[in-house]
């Protein structure tokens, strides 16, 4: 190669090497450069909140204070706070990120609506320090709003939901429950609606039972539904309390309830006006309030709505013994050992016994009657809960109607003929287990 050609090659190689070096350097600088996609504006541990002060332009401040594990409104009036609403507000203020930074140190905050903010949220922490977030005008696209934090020279944009989550009124934050009992510690419920008053209490197994007007088995699902209706009864603040009180005074009584837990007894009275609107007065909160229609309808129940229509209580606890007598046939006893059913020395087909158990479990009354009668056509005794629960039911027939009674109870249950037929069919279908096939050696 000629010296001149060699020199050109060396120069080209140096240029190429320099270009590669420069490119790598720029990439490294780019990777190290700070990003500003979502700068954090506010970051406060939720357990450090003591007070939240919300102020909208031209309105009184709404103040929430945390004490003894509870949030309460202290301004513009003292009211209990809704625990869920307070927790949501704390969560919104604990961590606020910007969409982006708009200006580092603006000379004119008014152009962003931040000279006189639309909304201000001030948090006082346990150490006494305060953090203040100000929300200004909406952005031109209405997808967000301008914001800044006190002591921070930057102007940011935040998503619309940030502003919405902080734009709360007294009615948004106050506790709207009409009863404040603890469901887990409830021991007694009284309902006076249709017919005689019904009182519910807990038995030794912590199950609901009807205590008054006389001891009766209760449908625990229906009682729990009643408790849920009472727990969820809330003020409808679309009607002013003064107007609601006038409506209440002229309305017809629907239900009066009492609930008792470890803290005491609370009462709730519900009435319905001619337009089918419901209004309620509670001992737990001052005033009269409109309530949702499902609250009024959920309390307008009678004794029979809460009675247990199931003939057996064993539910899904596995029975270990069955005594069955169907028609004129002799009584037969089935016992369970391990996972096998047997009648005396005969092993039984488990599936056929399970079918009978399912029919017994599902046997329910269509209604309760004062009188039954007729000769017995079917009897069943079930032992369950490791031998602790023993239940016996006798089914009788009078004319074309079937009735049932549980041993030791005066209640008479009327049954569907088809349900009795299914039960008898399942009882007659219990069969011996197929002989075990010996394995070939």
SS-derived structural category: alpha+beta
List how many beta strands DSSP finds: 28
Silhouette: elongated
Q: How can the largest sheet be summarized?
A: 9 strands, antiparallel
What share of residues is helical?
10-25%
| Major beta sheet, strand line-up | 5-4-3-2-8-9-10-11-7
According to CATH, the fold-level topology of the largest domain is Immunoglobulin-like
Task: Walk me through the structure.
It is a single chain. With 441 residues, the chain is α+β, with helices and mostly antiparallel strands. It folds into 3 domains: 40-173, Immunoglobulin-like; 183-306, no CATH class; 321-428, Immunoglobulin-like (Sandwich), CATH 2.60.40. The chain has helices at residues 3-32, 83-94, 160-166, 170-173, 220-231, 241-249, 293-299, 303-306, 350-362, 417-428; strands at residues 40-43, 49-56, 62-67, 70-75, 79-80, 95-97, 100-103, 119-125, 130-138, 144-149, 155-159, 188-192, 198-202, 208-212, 216-217, 252-261, 264-272, 278-282, 288-291, 321-326, 332-337, 340-343, 346-347, 367-369, 376-384, 389-398, 401-406, 412-415.
